[in-house]
Amino acid sequence: MALALPRDGRFAPSQTGPLHLGNLRTALAAWLFARSSGGRFLVRIEDLDQAAARPEHEASHLADLEALGLDWDGEVVRQSSLRQRHDRAIDTLVAAGLTYPCFCTRKEVAEAAAAPHDDGPDGRYPGTCRHLSEGDQQAWLALGRRPALRLRAEGARESFTDRLYGWFEGPVDDFVLRRNDGTPAYNLAVVVDDAAQGIDEVVRGDDLLATTPRQVHLARLLGLAVPSYAHVPLVVGPDGERLAKRHGAVTLADRVAAGQTVDQVRSQLASSLGLCRADEPVSMATLTERFDPAVVPRARWVLHAP
Ligand code: GLU
């Protein structure tokens, strides 16, 4: 019988607000995938978007993970401290002739992408700046527009077998590698950092499923190992909309303020992953033993008021 190897995983929250129970459920799933295989579990704070990042949330993110029993290995890493390796990866792609400057504004991209697409990710780029001449580029620069840097994807498609979703295939557009404010873009940074941190299995919300072909493509171009993926179905409120503040008690602190204990919230999250009854007290050790990707529901989880 072949022995399964440990698979290192991670949780990579953005610092845009407090974690809600949907984020914590994804973190629990990521922790269980890693720990049940005997792998490491790392935490990486995704704070590259300085305009949106609110560092004051970091402490509550870590406190929530700790309270639920989601321990991690090593130091928590902040993505903003890893800029050099992002820049090196971008330099490699530039040197290989796989990039071009793009002068489009966000609004222009949104308008150009408004035509209905088959199966592409949000914000799929139609290639407006792909064939700009040197003169056109100089003209834009003279007008004061700062370019973003895009990948020449050459109409690629990529596929992978998701551990929860199954086989998935999608197009790769000419996505942004570096934003026009100089910041490495999410798709670039996540691929470079997961590889540098030795992540074997990326577990995250299924809102990122459609952008994953971009990441697979980029890893291949950079000669990096492509991790396996498990996209956890999103959590929605009773109205079927993506979980948000307006749904009421959506964070761990909200739930505790409403009278639930942390143990009860853990049971609720674990039950939504098919691992116990919602009112059954469970330790992390028991959950680790019971964890089985096959029982994780493939449908969205509806979170009701406590
Ligand atoms: N930082 C991203 C988010 O919070 C997740 C990135 C990832 O897991 O790849 O949505």
Number of helices: 10
Cα-atom radius of gyration: 20 Å
How are strands sequenced across the largest beta sheet? 1-2-3
Ligand identities: glutamic acid
Summarize this, please?
The protein has helices at 21-36, 57-68, 83-95, 106-112, 134-142, 186-196, 212-221, 252-257, 262-272, 284-290, and strands spanning 9-11, 41-45, 77-78, 99-102, 148-151, 157-162, 166-171, 176-178, 201-205, 228-232, 235-236, 301-302.
Sum up the structure in keywords.
306 residues; 12 strands; Glutamyl-tRNA Synthetase, domain 3; binds glutamic acid; Rossmann fold; 3-stranded parallel sheet; 2 domains; 10 helices; 3-stranded antiparallel sheet; alpha/beta
Give an account of the 3D structure.
The chain is an alpha/beta fold and 306 residues long. The protein has two domains: 9-75 and 233-302, Rossmann fold (3-Layer(aba) Sandwich), CATH 3.40.50.620; 84-188, Alpha-Beta Complex (Glutamyl-tRNA Synthetase, domain 3). Helices cover 33% and strands 15% of the residues. It has helices at 21-36, 57-68, 83-95, 106-112, 134-142, 186-196, 212-221, 252-257, 262-272, 284-290, and strands at 9-11, 41-45, 77-78, 99-102, 148-151, 157-162, 166-171, 176-178, 201-205, 228-232, 235-236, 301-302. The strands form five sheets. It has a three-stranded parallel β-sheet with strand order 1-2-3. Helix 6 packs across helix 7. The protein starts with 8 loop residues before the first strand and ends with a strand. Bound molecules: glutamic acid (GLU). The site of glutamic acid has 7 residues, from loops.
